[in-house]
Each structure stands twice: as structure tokens, then as C-alpha cells.
């Protein structure tokens, strides 16, 4: 857990604090210093247009972290609401909602995100909505499962017997018990959101120029990689690797920490 949090803190510092000291525009073109290797003047080198890779890395980090957070939060709100409604209402309502989630899950996630982005037009906003769409069933399924489990507990039966309304039961007795599950799922979705946006950016469907994005930076750097200019694509690639690994570590540790004693004992 501490390793994952440490990696995220480092990336957040680079994205939010370092630009206060490294005042270089990520879009400033200087062809006289194109393809310069890492040096004190350019710690991560420059790209084919002479743009500072460190400045672009920081800008890409801000974009990627914001998109990952947006996907995790919006997906949790929409998917969590669907899961709660399905788990509480049951019957035909639950069946219809879950069949809708199954329809989304029938498509490979990245392919569906690509289809949404192409249909609405390439860009950061449309790509984000495409990734949000594929995250909704992940939340809905796991929240519904937890709601069904919590509904079977004696304290819920006691609240219903005492005349508590469905809204009160959800607000006072179910939602608090869903928080650990949703937070753990959100860490994984946050990681996937950043990875998926990098993939869409690699294909030219995500963040558009001149805005910096890790995926597009990797794409731009590939044409120079065979010529020895490894730094253009390596540093954003390491950024994607670091943030996804950090979120995965947090998600795994959170799942273990929040697991029920009986489940943990049973393996």
C-alpha cells in the first residue's frame, strides 16, 4: 500500500508542484534544440520539435490523472446507482438493468471506447466518456452483489421490521457498507482509465495536439526510437507504468484490507 501511495505522491508532485519551478511551456517549439538528449537544461531531453519532454511529461501527467479520476468518480456514481437500484428492487427491474450491463460487457472494453470516440469525434472529452461507459458495468455488478449480501443481514431485517423506508435503509445501513468495496474498485478503474486513455492517445483518438498526453507522446517518440532518441517515448511510458502499477498495488491491498474476516481466512 505504501509503495503504491508513494508512487502516486511522486507523480502528483511532478504534475502539480514541479511546474511551479520548471517554468517551461510544453508547447514551445525550438527547432534549434530538437532531439536534444537529457541534460541539465532539459532533464528528459527534447522531442522532434524541440519541445521540452519534462514539461510535456508534467502536462501529460495532469491530463492523465484528471481523466483517471473523472472515470473513477463518474463511473462509481452511475454504476453504483444502477447496482443499488438493481439490488434493492430485484425482479424485472434488476433483470433489465443487469442485461443492459451484460450488453456493454459483451464488447471488448477498449474496442467499445474506440467506437464511442470515433462516433462522437476524437478528443479528450469523448474518449473520457467512452472509458466511463465501459467502467459502469464493473461498478454496477460488484455493487449489486454487495447490496444483495448486505440485504440478507439481520440488522437490515431489523430496520425494515421497525418501519424504516427503503431510502432510509439504503442511506443508513447499505451505503456505509458499500464504501470500502467502491473505493477498492475505484482504484482499479482509475488505473484502467489512465491506461485506456494512453491507448486511445497512441491511436490518435484521445487528447489532441498541441495538448500533451502520455499516449500521444509515446506515439510521437516511436519514429525516433530506432534512431537512438529513446527518451521521447521512454519517459511517458514509464509514467503510464508507474501510475497503473501504483493504482493496482493500492487496489490489491485495499481489497485485502477490506475483505471480510471469513473470506480472508478462507483464502
In short:
It is a multi-pass membrane protein. By secondary structure, the chain is mainly α.
How much of the sequence lies in strands comes to under 5%
Give the beta-strand count. Answer: 0
Could you give the order of the helices and strands?
A: HHHHHHHHHH
CATH classification class: Mainly Alpha
User: Which structural class matches the secondary elements?
Assistant: mainly alpha
Domain ABC transmembrane type-1: 61-251
Keywords: Cell membrane, Membrane, Transmembrane, Transmembrane helix, Transport
Protein name: Peptide/nickel transport system permease protein
Subcellular location: Cell membrane
Structure description:
The protein is mostly helical. Helices cover 76% and strands 0% of the residues. The chain has one domain: Orthogonal Bundle (MetI-like fold). The protein has helices at residues 2-21, 53-89, 91-105, 109-120, 124-151, 154-161, 166-202, 214-225, 231-258, 261-265. Mean pLDDT is 87; it is low at 260-267.
Set down the secondary structure blueprint.
Layout: H1 2-21, H2 53-89, H3 91-105, H4 109-120, H5 124-151, H6 154-161, H7 166-202, H8 214-225, H9 231-258, H10 261-265
Amino acid at each position: 500500500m505504501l509503495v503504491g501511495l508513494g508512487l502516486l505522491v511522486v507523480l502528483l508532485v511532478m504534475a502539480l508542484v514541479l511546474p511551479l519551478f520548471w517554468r517551461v511551456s510544453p508547447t514551445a517549439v525550438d527547432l534549434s534544440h530538437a532531439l536534444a538528449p537529457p541534460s541539465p537544461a532539459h532533464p528528459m531531453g527534447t522531442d522532434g520539435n524541440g519541445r521540452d519532454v519534462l514539461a510535456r511529461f508534467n502536462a501529460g501527467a495532469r491530463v492523465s490523472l484528471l481523466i483517471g479520476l473523472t472515470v473513477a468518480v463518474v463511473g462509481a456514481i452511475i454504476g453504483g446507482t444502477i447496482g443499488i437500484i438493481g439490488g434493492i428492487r430485484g425482479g424485472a427491474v434488476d433483470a433489465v438493468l443487469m442485461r443492459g450491463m451484460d450488453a456493454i460487457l459483451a464488447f471488448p472494453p477498449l474496442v467499445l471506447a474506440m467506437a464511442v470516440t470515433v462516433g462522437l469525434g476524437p478528443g479528450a472529452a469523448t474518449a473520457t466518456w467512452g472509458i466511463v461507459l465501459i467502467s459502469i458495468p464493473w461498478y454496477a455488478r460488484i455493487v449489486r452483489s454487495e447490496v444483495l449480501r448486505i440485504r440478507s443481514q439481520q440488522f437490515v431485517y431489523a430496520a425494515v421490521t421497525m418501519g424504516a423506508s427503503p431510502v432510509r435503509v439504503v442511506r443508513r445501513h447499505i451505503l456505509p457498507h458499500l464504501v470500502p468495496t467502491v473505493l477498492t474498485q475505484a482504484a482499479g478503474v482509475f488505473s484502467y482509465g489512465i491506461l485506456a486513455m494512453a491507448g486511445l492517445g497512441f491511436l490518435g483518438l484521445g487528447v489532441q495536439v498541441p495538448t500533451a498526453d502520455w499516449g500521444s507522446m509515446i506515439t510521437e517518440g516511436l519514429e525516433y526510437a530506432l534512431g537512438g532518441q529513446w527518451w521521447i517515448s521512454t519517459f511517458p511510458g514509464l509514467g503510464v507504468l508507474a501510475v497503473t502499477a501504483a493504482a493496482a498495488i493500492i487496489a490489491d491491498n485495499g481489497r485485502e484490507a477490506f475483505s471480510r474476516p471469513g473470506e480472508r481466512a478462507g483464502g
